[in-house]
């Protein structure tokens, strides 16, 4: 049975300059789903990148009512552990719901968001075919730079002789007109519209 485990954890304050700082969160994915190029991944994202992802997913799946993100409040205090943890939980619930929808799982942006550290601008360029690398290439490059999961490397070596290693069946070149299909995962016709 296929599973996707997503954890949003380890909030950290990052300083952009002497006046401005923000919090980013680690997103950990572990899955056996054929929709994913990598079976384990770990990236860091900030709140505004989640906002961008939700907007892009909504514009590509107009008939689906996407879950809400935790509200952005003027009174959010990054030094208040309760505020930070409340937002972290909301971001995790958002991703858990997103990852249950087959149509949303077919969006390349979601996979780049979860499995690379590309900026939103670079994700858009990749998805629209304006880069020399494909979605799968970007995910593999990021994974090879961040070898935190030796178990997956072992599994890949064992599976090299298999017909379907964990990534070779993924789509590799995305043209400008094919920006919503990714990673060999197709939306099922029975996906719910709510």
From TrEMBL:
<comment type="similarity">
    <text>Belongs to the sorting nexin family.</text>
</comment>
<dbReference type="Pfam" id="PF00787">
    <property type="entry name" value="PX"/>
</dbReference>
<keyword id="KW-0472">Membrane</keyword>
<protein>
    <submittedName>
        <fullName>SNX10 protein</fullName>
    </submittedName>
</protein>
<keyword id="KW-0813">Transport</keyword>
<dbReference type="InterPro" id="IPR001683">
    <property type="entry name" value="PX_dom"/>
</dbReference>
<dbReference type="InterPro" id="IPR036871">
    <property type="entry name" value="PX_dom_sf"/>
</dbReference>
<keyword id="KW-0653">Protein transport</keyword>
<feature type="compositionally biased region" description="Low complexity">
    <location>
        <begin position="168"/>
        <end position="182"/>
    </location>
</feature>
<feature type="compositionally biased region" description="Basic and acidic residues">
    <location>
        <begin position="150"/>
        <end position="163"/>
    </location>
</feature>
<dbReference type="GO" id="GO:0060271">
    <property type="term" value="P:cilium assembly"/>
</dbReference>
<dbReference type="GO" id="GO:0005768">
    <property type="term" value="C:endosome"/>
</dbReference>
<dbReference type="GO" id="GO:0016050">
    <property type="term" value="P:vesicle organization"/>
</dbReference>
<feature type="domain" description="PX">
    <location>
        <begin position="3"/>
        <end position="120"/>
    </location>
</feature>
<feature type="region of interest" description="Disordered">
    <location>
        <begin position="150"/>
        <end position="194"/>
    </location>
</feature>
<dbReference type="InterPro" id="IPR043544">
    <property type="entry name" value="SNX10/11"/>
</dbReference>
<dbReference type="GO" id="GO:0006886">
    <property type="term" value="P:intracellular protein transport"/>
</dbReference>
<keyword id="KW-0446">Lipid-binding</keyword>
<keyword id="KW-0967">Endosome</keyword>
<keyword id="KW-0963">Cytoplasm</keyword>
<dbReference type="GO" id="GO:1901981">
    <property type="term" value="F:phosphatidylinositol phosphate binding"/>
</dbReference>
């Amino acid at each position: 049975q296929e599973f996707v485990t997503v954890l949003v954890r380890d909030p950290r304050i990052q300083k952009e300059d002497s006046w401005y700082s923000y919090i980013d969160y680690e997103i950990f994915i572990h899955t056996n789903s054929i929709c994913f190029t990598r079976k384990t991944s770990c990236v860091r994202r900030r709140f505004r990148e989640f906002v961008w992802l939700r907007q892009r997913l909504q514009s590509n799946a107009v008939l689906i009512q996407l879950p809400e993100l935790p509200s952005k409040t003027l009174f959010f205090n990054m030094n208040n552990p309760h505020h930070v943890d409340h937002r972290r939980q909301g971001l995790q619930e958002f991703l858990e719901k997103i990852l249950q929808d087959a149509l949303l799982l077919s969006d390349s942006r979601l996979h780049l968001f979860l499995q690379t550290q590309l900026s939103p601008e670079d994700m858009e360029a990749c998805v629209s075919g304006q880069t020399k690398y494909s979605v799968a290439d970007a995910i593999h490059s990021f994974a090879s730079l961040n070898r935190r999961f030796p178990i997956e490397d072992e599994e890949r070596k064992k599976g090299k002789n298999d017909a379907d290693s964990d990534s070779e069946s993924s789509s590799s070149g995305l043209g400008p007109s094919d920006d919503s299909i990714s990673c060999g995962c197709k939306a099922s016709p029975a996906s719910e519209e709510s």
